[in-house]
Design a protein that fits this description.
The chain has helices spanning 16-20, 44-48, 63-66, 91-106, 123-127, 148-162, 173-185, 299-309, 317-321, 352-358, 375-378, 387-406, and strands at 3-6, 26-29, 32-35, 54-57, 74-78, 111-117, 134-139, 166-170, 190-194, 196-200, 205-212, 217-221, 229-233, 250-253, 285-289, 312-315, 342-346, 363-368, 381-384. The chain is α/β, with parallel strands linked by helices. Strand 11 (205-212) and strand 12 (217-221) form a beta hairpin. The structure holds flavin-adenine dinucleotide (FAD).
């Protein structure tokens, strides 16, 4: 880490730096200038000191920075849906394996995955059905529960030792927590919440695309001078490869060098939030309600259609902001990105911020009273009409059909 160094032999205690510091981080104590925790290394004191008695010391740069060519390979951090053995691979990890393969092929390099946890005996068997070259398994008791400091310490040690040029992880709650810490430990950059990843194979630079300025522009971000190039990627925006037959994949059981354990964080208890949002990202069928639903009671009919189709309920921001549906159900730029087989949009206009969250659904059905609503531009099937009339007819048709089939 960078730090402010005081060269006491040069310091005359003139206190100009004390006055210049916008954060009150400098004070004279027992005849010496001292720096407190408030210091953010802004350098205001360094500039004002007439004796050059202050310096911001840059961290010793690892060879990672000076010799980019030593970093090779694409890595995906695979997350499991639970910590205990038997846990499945979360969908976004599969999506990243698909995209990671494409990036690795474009760079003529290898694709590896890293799994951290405890009781991971089954994981290599599940993963070797994907197009991988190597699986790093870090199985350690201290990784049983997710603690972001511990996961970041392990991943940064492994990446620092084996030197991948690209390191990817899903923008899940855990990924968002520990990946930035890992990037800081590796002294590299991170682009969070990407919706697109490509590669400039000539320069070996990862092109990381994400919405910026409230979603009004798509920014493509590069990290050309540091390695690894790190990105978290939104769930549901990339295609998921189908697992094939098991193939030969190198499996490396790796262990961190020192004791793990985190001094600052202790897990006291776990509470599972029962809001229904968790299964939205993995649902095959979603019936979503928007401003056209007209009220919280209007969501009963949405839930009824979801039940008839074996799906779950989603919502637009208009519905969530009105308090008709919980935030966990919100789909779109500031909600969840989903990729179901069937998406039924009821009373949703089709604003761009909603579309970014659902337009990769396999089949989109829209119900809207306005034939000019933009949702019809992305819909495969559309019903122009009042949802309070259309939905009950749809439910009756589905149930009649089911009855006929069961006879
Ligand atoms: C930075 C930013 C982030 C955002 N993030 C999100 C996000 O994550 N998700 C999101 O959804 N939005 C988001 N928004 C808001 C977005 O711009 C829209 O305001 C929002 O999607 C509108 O929701 P809606 O289409 O359900 O409601 P409305 O705009 O109110 O549209 C209602 C629709 O229902 C139709 N309708 C009305 N009555 C009926 C009826 N009886 N039967 C059938 N149809 C009917 C109307 O014709 C209309 O098309 C964001 C906006 C900003 C600026």
């Amino acid at each position: 880490m960078s730090e402010l160094r005081i060269i006491h032999e040069k310091c005359t205690l003139c206190e100009r730096c004390v006055k210049a510091c916008p954060f009150d981080a400098l004070r004279v104590c027992d005849g010496l200038l001292r720096v407190g925790e408030e210091c953010v290394l802004c350098g205001a004191c360094v500039k004002i000191c007439p004796e050059a008695a202050l310096e911001v010391e840059e961290p010793v740069r690892s060879d990672s920075v000076s010799d980019l060519r030593r970093w090779r390979g694409v890595w995906v951090v695979v997350e499991l849906s639970g910590e205990e053995s038997g846990a499945g691979i979360v969908p976004v990890s599969c999506e990243l394996i698909g995209r990671g393969r494409r990036l690795a092929d474009a760079l003529s390099t290898e694709l590896s995955v890293v799994v951290m946890g405890h009781g991971l005996d089954h994981v290599a068997g599940d993963l070797c059905r994907f197009p991988l070259d190597r699986i790093y398994i870090v199985d350690h008791e201290e990784l049983k529960d997710f603690i972001s400091e511990t996961h970041a310490a392990v991943l940064s040690e492994l990446a620092g030792e084996r030197k991948p040029e690209i390191l990817l992880c899903g923008a899940t709650a855990n990924g968002r927590a520990f990946f930035p810490r890992t990037a800081a430990l590796l002294h590299t950059g991170l682009t969070a919440d990407c919706t697109g990843l490509e590669v400039d194979s000539r320069r070996r630079v990862l092109l990381q695309t994400r919405p910026a300025f409230g979603g009004n522009v798509m920014a493509t971000i590069e990290c050309p001078e540091h390695r690894p190039q790190m990105a978290t990627v939104r769930p549901g925006v990339m295609a998921r490869p189908d697992p094939g037959d098991a193939r030969d994949v190198e499996v490396v059981a790796w262990q961190p060098s020192g004791a793990l354990g985190c001094r600052r964080v202790q897990l006291l208890r776990k509470t599972v939030q029962q809001e229904g949002g968790a299964n939205l990202s993995e649902a095959d069928v979603i019936v979503a309600g928007g401003g056209g639903v007209g009220g919280a009671e209007g969501f009963e009919i949405i839930a009824e259609l979801a039940r008839a189709l074996g799906g779950v309920v989603g919502a637009s921001r208009a519905a969530v902001d009105s308090g008709w549906a919980p935030y966990a159900a919100q789909i779109g730029q500031t909600g969840r990105v989903v990729q179901p087989r069937l998406y039924v949009a009821c009373g949703i206009s089709g604003a761009v911020q909603h579309l970014v969250g659902m337009q990769s659904a396999e089949t989109i059905v829209a119900i809207n009273s306005d034939p000019g609503a933009p949702i019809f531009e992305v819909a495969d099937f559309g019903f122009v009409g009042d949802l309070r009339a259309v939905i009950p007819r749809l439910i009756r048709t589905i149930e009649d059909d089911r009855r006929k089939k069961s006879r």
